[in-house]
Amino acid sequence: MLDIRDAIKAVRTREPSALYVTTCGYITRDAYNIDDRETNFYLVGSMGMAGPIGLGVALADVGRRVVVLDGDGSFAMNLGCLPMIAEHRPDLLHIVLDNGAHESTGGQRTAALGDPVALALAAGYAAAHSVDSAEGLAALDLTETPALVHIRCLPRTHEAGHRVALTPQELVSRFRAALGVQADALRRTA
C-alpha cells in the first residue's frame, strides 16, 4: 500500500496538466505542501463536496481533465454525487485515497466503504479500478471517463503539513485567473 503523499505524487506524475480539486483536511494540506499550483482548487471545510465541485469545473468546458482527490470518509459522505457525475460524462478522474481513517478529526475509523469500484460502476462511471501501488496506477487505462480510482493507502504516520495559506476568496480568484475566466463572464452565466 502507498503512503497518501506518495499516492498524490503518483497521480500528479500521471496527470501533470490536469486541474485538481481536493477534499478538505489533510489531503488538501498534503497536496498544498507537495505541489501548490494555481490550478489546484483546495476545499477548506467542505467535506463530501470534492466530487460535485470537480463536476462543476469539468462542466465549465475548460478543455482540461479534472482530477478530484477525495478521501474515503469524504467519498462516503456524498455517494449521491456518483450518478450525477456519471450522467454528465465529464473528463473527470475521481481518486479515492483510502486509509480507513478520518485523519483530520482525530483518526477515527471511517465507515466501511464496501466496494468503491462497484459503486462507481453501478452509478454509471465509464471505468473504475482499485490499486495499491504507484505501478498499478501507472498501468491503468484511464481514457474512458468519468473514471474512479480507489487507491488503498497506509495509515498516516507523519504530521500534517502546513495549512493552505490562502483565503477561500483568494483560492477562487487565482483558480479563475489560471483558467482565464473573467469574473464578469461568470456573473453573466450565473
TrEMBL record:
Residues 41-137 form the Thiamine pyrophosphate enzyme TPP-binding domain. SUPFAM superfamilies: Thiamin diphosphate-binding fold (THDP-binding) (SSF52518). It holds the Pfam family TPP_enzyme_C. Keywords: Decarboxylase, Lyase. This is Phosphonopyruvate decarboxylase.
